[in-house]
């Protein structure tokens, strides 16, 4: 058998000897033989293909634990895992791009000289639907905070309620300028702890969370799970959240079409929820006339986006919109709890200085 020293193997696969020693310790890439007297590592040419794969994946900044998973899979499944990882990287990059654009605008924008201010007009409503015996959703709307949480498991209702309750101080607290995303992220950590306290130490109980925090000109968004946030602007409806579900990941990987996802038997299976993953955080600039909708999947799973757009467009005020949307979901069978929050961005005269 042909043996390659660690130095020769490192040159052939473009990994450093230091990296190879680390991957040996992590049981990611074990040498074929270790000299019993000297401890020197030897490899075979057959190991070069796996070593090069590890090197390429490290160039993608893939975590070592996930590389171990990829290397253990057959080629087709490994390719799917890499596609899924890269879809996540692109989603995270989009969030960072939005934050970078916000910071550039914040540092270069000229002071506003207008005499108008923006504020929210809002309404929230939660309905058990026509099938479920209890309502595990929680919906909240205030002058600054809008939130929808969809609980699951035997303690789903207390979990969703605890998550929203932990955020409600944001409706009253004075928000520091410039770091609203940090404030929201810290508040979400507190919400996660509150949910763990009521979840009885089991993953059977938990909740999704989608919330918007109003700053006076922007909305900071936090999102995890399959509840959704939409923006109606200029007659067009935009979904501004990404579902954290198994089915959505299959769509992202090109293994399902959006049409197939609607009827997939695992469409409600979550990839992550408030206590089991990292939420998305981003900022949205608001414009007068914007209408925002937050909803649990009890609405969007049975009322298609074009119908949601039409109902939001036709409703004259947030309270009308909320009740019309809930009614539409119940008319479609109401198979799940339905929660909606609708908020309009409106202009108001600036208050004179004290």
List keywords for this structure.
six-stranded antiparallel β-sheet; 14 strands; 12 helices; alpha+beta; five-stranded antiparallel β-sheet
How does this structure look, described?
The chain is of the alpha+beta class. 40% of the residues lie in helices and 23% in strands. It contains twelve helices and 14 strands. The strands form three sheets. Strands 5, 6, 7, 8, 9 and 12 form a six-stranded antiparallel β-sheet that branches. Helix 6 runs antiparallel to helix 7. The longest helix has 34 residues, at 75-108. The model has no long low-confidence stretch (mean pLDDT 88).
Short description:
The chain has 354 residues and is an alpha+beta fold. The protein contains 12 helices and 14 strands.
């Amino acid at each position: 058998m042909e043996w390659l020293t660690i130095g020769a193997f490192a040159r052939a696969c473009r990994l450093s000897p230091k990296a190879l020693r680390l991957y040996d310790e992590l049981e990611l890439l074990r040498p074929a033989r270790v000299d019993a007297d000297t401890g020197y590592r030897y490899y075979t040419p057959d190991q070069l293909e796996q070593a090069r794969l590890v090197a390429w994946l490290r160039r993608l900044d893939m975590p070592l634990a996930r590389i171990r998973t990829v290397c253990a899979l057959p080629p087709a499944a490994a390719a799917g895992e890499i596609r899924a990882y890269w879809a996540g990287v692109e989603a995270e990059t989009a969030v960072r791009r939005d934050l970078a654009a916000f910071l550039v605008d914040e540092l270069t924008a000229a002071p506003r000289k207008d005499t108008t201010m923006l504020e929210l007009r809002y309404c929230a409503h939660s309905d058990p639907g026509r099938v479920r015996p209890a309502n595990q959703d929680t919906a909240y709307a205030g002058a600054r905070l809008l939130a929808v949480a969809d609980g699951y498991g035997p303690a789903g209702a207390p979990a969703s309620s605890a998550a929203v309750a932990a955020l409600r101080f944001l409706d009253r607290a004075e928000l520091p300028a410039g770091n609203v995303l940090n404030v929201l992220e810290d508040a979400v950590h507190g919400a996660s702890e509150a949910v763990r306290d009521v979840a009885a130490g089991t993953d059977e109980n938990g909740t999704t969370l989608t919330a918007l925090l109003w700053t006076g000109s922007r909305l900071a968004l936090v999102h995890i799970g399959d509840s959704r946030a939409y923006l109606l602007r200029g007659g067009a409806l935009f979904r501004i959240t990404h579902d954290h579900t198994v089915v959505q990941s299959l769509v992202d990987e090109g293994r399902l079409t959006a049409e197939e996802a609607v009827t997939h038997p695992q469409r409600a299976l979550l990839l992550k929820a408030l206590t089991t993953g990292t939420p998305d955080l981003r900022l949205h600039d608001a414009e007068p006339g914007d209408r925002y909708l937050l909803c649990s999947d009890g609405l969007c799973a049975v009322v298609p986006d074009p119908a949601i757009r039409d109902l939001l467009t036709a409703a004259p005020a947030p309270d009308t919109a909320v009740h019309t949307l809930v009614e539409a979901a119940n008319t479609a069978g109401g198979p799940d709890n339905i929660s909606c929050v609708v908020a309009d961005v409106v202009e108001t005269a600036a208050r004179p200085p004290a």
